[in-house]
Design a protein that fits this description.
The protein is of the alpha/beta class. The chain has a seven-stranded mixed beta sheet, with helices on both faces. It holds the Pfam family Methyltransf_23.
């Protein structure tokens, strides 16, 4: 069974847990409307900013599985040209509407496809930034998907790969008193806590880095996303000042050397890679 499914498909099935929150765009102030989304956007926007400074022009971006354009529209708003490849026609239609509303329709292209035919629907070796956020959990063959992403990457480009982490769900299940589920997630190859788990698989850092390196890329950086956010009660972040303080803490912890081990507990792992 092919499972290159969009977040729109999952939402229709009632799947919510651990599906990355990349569908909410940043607010005009630069702080995303969703706290979880904001933590990811902080990481992606920094990558785009650094890349643009290096090549001195707007980026050519490929967003595989970009859905309705949470990341794509935000990047297009910054002036970049973004191609979203997604298997869902409904998601692509929503992408078009969102791009029109944001005034960036001329900088976004939506193409129906997935990792299995990426080499035929998108030019090879031309994307400065390739985003693949919350997709590897669902594809039939993650290694093949990463090879396809590597093929689309320009010689000096960067792959931004975000995956759900195994250790995060182990801790979350344990804190919820579901000790059997925590052990199941820790010890099974897929990192799932049981049959009702909405994700087909989760990853640890070593597994993701191995996929990237086998695809001929070199890992540039790895850091946790949402190290604290998923464990902080919502009552503690009910004001904009508290939300911003938590985001600042996330940013500082994700790059702090003494917190490297805690990055493994982030809900997601953000891996940056480029060519050797």
């Amino acid at each position: 069974m092919h499972v290159d499914r969009t977040r729109a498909d999952l939402a229709a099935d009632g799947v919510r847990e651990r599906v990355p929150d990349s569908e909410a765009p940043p607010s005009p102030t630069g702080v995303a409307t969703n706290l979880r989304t904001a933590a990811l956007w902080e990481s992606v926007s920094r990558v785009a900013e650094d890349l643009q400074a290096d090549i001195d022009r707007p980026l050519r971006v490929l967003d595989l599985g970009g859905g309705t354009g949470g990341v794509a529209v935000a990047l297009a708003t910054l002036g970049h040209q973004v191609t979203v490849v997604d298997p869902s026609p409904d998601a692509l239609a929503a992408l078009g509407r969102r791009a029109e509303e944001a005034g960036v329709a001329d900088r976004i292209i939506g193409i129906q496809g997935d990792s299995s035919n990426l080499d035929t629907v998108h030019p090879q070796a031309q994307a400065d930034l390739v985003c693949c956020h919350g997709v590897l959990e669902f594809v039939d063959d993650p290694a093949r998907a990463v090879r396809a992403l590597a093929g689309a990457l320009a010689p000096d480009g960067v792959l931004s790969l975000v995956v759900a982490q195994r250790l995060s769900v182990v801790l979350a299940r344990a804190l919820a008193g579901q000790f059997g589920q925590a052990q199941h997630a820790l010890t099974t190859p897929e990192g799932r806590w049981g049959p009702a788990d909405p994700l087909p698989r989760r990853f640890d850092r070593a597994a993701v880095c191995e996929l990237v390196e086998e695809a001929g890329l070199e890992v540039i950086d790895t850091h946790g996303v949402r190290i604290f956010s998923d464990f902080v009660p919502s009552a503690f972040v009910d004001s904009e000042a508290e939300r911003q303080a938590l985001l600042d803490l996330e940013r500082a912890a994700s790059s702090h050397p003494d917190f490297a081990v805690l990055a493994e507990l982030g809900a997601s792992l953000h891996v940056l890679a480029g060519r050797h």
